[in-house]
Amino acid sequence: SDVCSSDLDLQDRDAVQRAVDRTVALFGGIDIVVNAAGGYSGAHPELRPADSAWFATAMDNLLNTLINVCDACWPHLEARGGGSVINIGAAPLTRLVGTPAYHAGKLGMIGIGQSLAWRGAPNNIRVNNVSPGRMRLPLPESGPYDPASLPKLGNLASRFGSGVDVAYAALYFASDESAWVTGTDLTVDGG
Predict the structure, then answer these.
(1) If I label 116, which of 34, 131, 143, 168 is the partner at 20 to 30 A Cα–Cα?
(2) Taking Cα atoms as reference points, which of 46, 66, 42 lies closest to residue 114?
(3) Is residue 154 classed as helix, strand or coil in its secondary structure?
(4) CA angle, 18 as apex, 39 and 32 as ends, to 5°?
(5) % of the chain beyond a pLDDT of 70
(6) What's the mean pLDDT when you consider all of the chain?
(7) CB 114 within 8 A of CB 58
(8) Residues contacting 41, CB < 8 A, separation 6+
(9) H-helix or E-strand containing 118?
(10) In Å, what is the CA distance from 31 to each residue of 16, 72, 104, 126, 135?
């Protein structure tokens, strides 16, 4: 029932470590880690050599934040005898609608998650990914995410997803019901 929060830049390894240390001091350990941070750096549909700084920024937002949090939390998960790491990615259609850097970063999350699952298995640390489809969010009126310019939903459901849909998938991975599930990517996109 107690909650603590920190306002920090997840790209700053020292700030992440301080936040994790504060959490451990308040609660006695860490059992569950959810990596849901990321960033949108604007529309950029093509990659050209001149775009390397933009691409690097996208990777910092999507992958380095995940690595910083996992590195800071990992020893605490080991000390507790295990735990669950849950990375929030993006479903295939969502990645395709995004920019190439967004697509690459979200696929990178799956790869990092699978590598960490292998690393964590001997210590009962499970690592899984939840990849949501398009969510019911306010979308810009124009640009690449203009609702009129987006492809058909491409799923069996006739609605956009909600945060609750993603939360229940993450809750499954956080619970003992998924004790024998690690290294997987669960697509939550309405089919």
Answers:
(1) 168
(2) 66
(3) coil
(4) 70
(5) 76
(6) 85
(7) no
(8) 54, 57, 58, 61, 99, 101
(9) helix 100-120
(10) 17, 13, 29, 10, 28
In 3D space, the residue among 2, 43, 48, 7 whose CA is nearest the CA of residue 25 turns out to be 2
User: Which residues, other chains included, contact 164 with Cβ-Cβ below 8 Å and sequence gap of 6+?
Assistant: none
Map tokens 């950029």 to a residue.
44
**Residues 92, 95, 96: CA angle, nearest 5 degrees:** 90
Structural element, H or E, at residue 93: helix 92-97
Q: How does residue 95 score in pLDDT terms, banded at 50, 70 and 90?
A: low
pLDDT of residue 31: 97
Q: With CA atoms as reference, report the closest residue to 119 among 85, 145, 91, 169.
A: 85
pTM: 0.86
* Residues in the chain, overall count: 191
**Sheet (strand 32-35) strand order:** 32-35, 83-88, 125-132, 185-188
Distance CA 29, CA 107 (A): 30
Structure tokens belonging to residue 102: 């967004």
- 147 Cβ neighbours under 8 A, 6+ residues apart: 139
Measuring CA to CA, which residue among 125, 124, 150 is closest to residue 137? Answer: 150
Nearest to residue 81, comparing CAs of 120, 55, 115, 107? 120
